[in-house]
């Protein structure tokens, strides 16, 4: 149901801290995608759409019904390493290496 509305939902956990992110349908401006994004802390790995402000949702979206029917499509499990490199000119470059797996359900 979220996909039909061009809405993405992600949960992330690192150690014992979890958060949920909702990405709403947006627009393309000058070839760049702009999507409203909202983050909230979670008490567990199970997302809770009802925790978000009701004003963010598209008109007439049945948030409660969708929330009850959420299921996981895939998961990513990885370790992230990050390096911050500073050039002689003072520019900062962030280098990130993710190593892990993507597991699809079914």
UniProtKB/TrEMBL annotation:
Origin: domain of life: Bacteria
GO MF term list: inorganic triphosphate phosphatase activity; metal ion binding
UniProt xrefs under Pfam families: CYTH
InterPro entries associated with the record: CYTH-like_dom_sf, CYTH_domain, YgiF
Domain annotation CYTH: ranges: 1-106
PANTHER family: INORGANIC TRIPHOSPHATASE
Protein name per UniProt: Inorganic triphosphatase
């Amino acid at each position: 149901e979220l996909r039909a509305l061009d809405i993405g939902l992600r949960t992330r956990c690192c150690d014992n801290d979890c958060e949920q992110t909702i990405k709403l349908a947006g627009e393309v401006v000058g070839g760049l995608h702009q999507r409203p994004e909202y983050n909230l802390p979670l008490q567990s790995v199970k997302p809770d759409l009802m925790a978000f402000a009701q004003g963010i949702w598209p008109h007439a979206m049945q948030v409660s019904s969708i929330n009850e029917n959420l299921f996981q499509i895939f998961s990513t499990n990885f370790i992230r390493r990050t390096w911050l490199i500073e050039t002689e000119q003072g520019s900062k470059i962030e280098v990130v290496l993710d190593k892990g797996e993507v597991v699809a359900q079914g």
